[in-house]
Structures are given as structure tokens and as C-alpha cells.
Write a structure and sequence with these properties.
Layout lengths: L2 H4 L7 E7 L3 E4 L13 E2 L3 E4 L5 E5 L4 E5 L4 E9 L2 E18 L3 H13 L1 E10 L6 E9 L5 E8 L10 E3 L4 E3 L7 E7 L4 E6 L4 E3 L8 E3 L3 E7 L1 E3 L2 E2 L1 E3 L5 E3 L1 E3 L3 E2 L4 H37 L11 E7 L2 E7 L5 E6 L12 E4 L3
Parallel strand pairs: 8-12
Antiparallel strand pairs: 1-3, 1-5, 2-4, 4-7, 5-6, 6-8, 7-8, 8-14, 9-10, 10-11, 12-13, 14-15, 15-18, 16-17, 18-23, 18-24, 19-20, 21-22, 25-26, 25-28, 26-27
């Protein structure tokens, strides 16, 4: 059994997992906006902006994914190695962003294999692969009834056991991830009001605001707000300390309960909005077709619609022109009406000819 087959849906590097609406993505090394699609691999520093009815989910690497929720801005910086872009920094600039540590794909593949074969799978050795950063996972498969055993090799083209920390930043904080942190944070940043809110949905997490003297230990499903101050519109105010240290001006609010399903609810609302938008557009298109069929049958003249001996009055090149609908369904007898320009409009009107 080959892990590469089992993991066909787990792409490496920075990858778009899914999205809704029309989020804006711009890559530093590409002038043109990328054609956004699922499983799109991003190869350089990336700027992401969502509107009120957008969101996008990206896999950062084998350990983390981020969800950029509506009305948010995020930048991802890193380095390109071979044909893969490795994110080193996540900078939250505005709005709501969920950062989640995802399950180790090797463990996920093993669990899937065990369930499928009803056997016990054990990694007995990890060897260096032929390609850069690739590995060969030697696994031992033992059936539960002890009647058979097998050993196979699985090629894995990722850096699964080479954990590298990622810096997560905003105008309020900067920290690095660490191995087995079990991170699941929803960060909400409002620069108009100098307000930060952080919700923790995983194990205990200590929130530090640069060199602020008070840290906050957040338990699972616990959140807290920091009400800061503005130096000027959109710019957080800080107290400067020695050795280039700084602390944001402001104070902590009381801790509050965070609901773990709120992220999914926001995504569902966005999907439903965009689905309704598509449905409304289709409904309008069908109505337009129905209206055209009805008008084609009712009116003698078309483009514009009119009846026998009605006239169209339209302004063209600063001239008021009148045409008449004849018995053959054609607009004819074009006449310039120099003294009655108030009868004309740029878009044209169909009415009685007035004679």
C-alpha cells in the first residue's frame, strides 16, 4: 500500500483548499491576479483580501491551515525552495483569521489504512528519499488475526518530520508556533477601534502582546479582548520601552466564552449568500427570456418594441429623430424634428407620433 496514493488530496506547500465569493489574491512575483481555484498552488509571498461575502481557506504546510473570513486582509511571506513555497510568516492586517494546526498526514494515512485493512500499521523506519526533502516510510502491516504480515515502502514528498516554526503577527502581537502546540486561534483585528479579540479553541494558549506586562492564559473555548488606543487613524498607539521594546496602550477586558462553531456559521452564511446571488441571477436571466418571448409576440415592431403607427423619438448626435412602426414591423420614415427636442431622450421613447 503506497502512502502517496492514500494522500492524493494532500498537496504540499501553500495551497488554496476552498473558497466562496470572489476573494482577491495577489502574488509578489506575479503581476497578473491568479485564476483562483481549489488546489491552486501559490509560489511566492501572497496578499489576500476578502470582501463582506468572501472567504478563503489555505493550507500553509503539512501542519497548519488558515481561514481568511469576510472583510479581512492577510499577508503570507516565506521562501521558495525548488518548486515549493514555504511560508515563514502570517501577518494579520485586518478582520478575522482562523489559524488551525491540522493532523499529521502520515498519521492520517495510517489511520485510513488501518481502517481499510482492519490491520495494525506501524512505521518501523524512515529513510531519505531520492528527491529533495522526500522520505521513505517503511511500514509494517499486521492483521488483527495474526495470520498474515506484510512490509512495504511508502514514498512521501513532504517535510513531515522537519517542523519549522511559523511567525504569526499583527499590529498587537508576534509569536512563533512550536511543535505539538495544538493551535486553533480565531483572531479578530479592528484597527478602526484599535481592538483585538482572540478566541482559543484548542489546548491552553498564552497570549502575549509584545512586551506587555500582563499575559493572558486562555483555556479551550475561551477568548479575550484588548481595547487599545490609536496614534492616528488605523495606527495602534504604543508606549516605547528601552532596547526597542514596546507595549500597546490600552487594557484587557474580561474573558468570555467563544463558540467553536462560529467559524463554520460564518462560512455557511457566505456560501448561502453567494448561492442566492447565483440563483437570483439565473432567475433574472430566465425572466428576461420570458419577457422577450412575450414582447416578441405582443408587439409588431422590435428593438425597440412598438405597435403599428407608434413612433420612437431618440436623440442622436444632438439631433431629435423620429421613426415610425409600419405594417411590416419595421421602423421607417426617419425624420429630424428640429423644433421639438423636448420630445427626445438619449435612450429613446416609444409613444404616439403626435400627428
Amino acid at each position: 500500500m503506497n502512502f502517496k496514493i492514500l494522500k492524493s488530496n494532500l498537496l504540499h506547500g501553500l495551497v488554496v483548499i476552498n473558497f466562496a465569493g470572489n476573494p482577491f489574491l495577489q502574488l509578489k512575483e506575479e503581476k497578473a491576479k491568479p485564476d483562483l481555484r481549489e488546489n491552486l498552488s501559490l509560489k511566492s509571498d501572497t496578499y489576500i483580501r476578502t470582501n463582506l461575502n468572501d472567504y478563503v481557506v489555505l493550507k500553509i504546510n503539512e501542519n497548519y491551515q488558515v481561514t481568511v473570513l469576510p472583510d479581512s486582509i492577510l499577508t503570507l511571506d516565506g521562501i521558495r525552495q525548488q518548486d515549493e513555497f514555504n511560508v515563514r510568516s502570517i501577518y494579520i492586517r485586518r478582520g478575522q483569521v482562523h489559524i488551525l494546526e491540522i493532523q499529521d498526514p502520515v498519521k492520517a494515512a495510517i489511520q485510513k489504512l488501518e481502517k481499510k485493512t482492519k490491520s495494525k500499521v506501524k512505521v518501523v523506519e524512515i529513510k531519505k528519499g531520492l528527491k529533495p526533502h522526500s522520505k521513505i516510510h517503511v511500514i509494517e502491516i499486521t492483521s488483527q488475526d495474526k495470520t498474515s504480515a506484510d512490509e512495504t515502502k511508502a514514498a512521501d514528498q513532504s517535510e513531515l518530520d522537519l517542523f519549522e516554526p511559523i511567525k504569526i503577527e499583527s499590529d498587537f502581537f508576534s509569536f512563533k508556533t512550536h511543535k505539538d502546540q495544538k493551535l486553533s486561534l480565531l483572531v479578530e483585528l479592528n484597527l478602526n477601534e484599535a481592538q483585538l479579540k482572540v478566541c482559543n479553541f484548542s489546548s491552553d494558549f498564552k497570549l502575549e502582546l509584545f512586551d506587555h506586562e500582563i499575559d493572558q492564559n486562555l483555556k479551550a473555548n475561551e477568548g479575550i479582548r484588548f481595547n487599545g488606543a490609536l496614534e492616528k487613524p488605523g495606527q495602534i498607539a504604543f508606549d516605547k520601552l528601552l532596547e526597542k521594546r514596546k507595549i500597546p496602550k490600552g487594557k484587557w477586558a474580561a474573558k468570555e466564552i467563544c463558540l467553536s462553531d462560529q467559524i463554520k456559521k460564518i462560512q455557511t452564511q457566505v456560501v448561502e449568500f453567494n448561492l442566492k446571488k447565483v440563483q437570483d441571477a439565473e432567475k433574472a436571466r430566465l425572466q428576461k427570456i420570458a419577457d422577450k418571448k412575450r414582447n416578441d409576440a405582443v408587439f409588431l415592431c422590435h428593438e425597440p418594441y412598438g405597435q403599428l403607427d407608434q413612433c420612437q423619438f431618440i436623440m442622436k448626435q444632438n439631433k431629435c429623430l423620429r421613426t415610425r412602426c409600419n405594417a411590416e414591423g419595421k421602423w421607417t420614415d426617419q425624420t429630424e424634428i428640429g423644433s421639438a427636442k423636448n420630445l427626445c431622450s438619449v435612450t429613446g421613447d416609444v409613444k404616439s407620433c403626435g400627428y
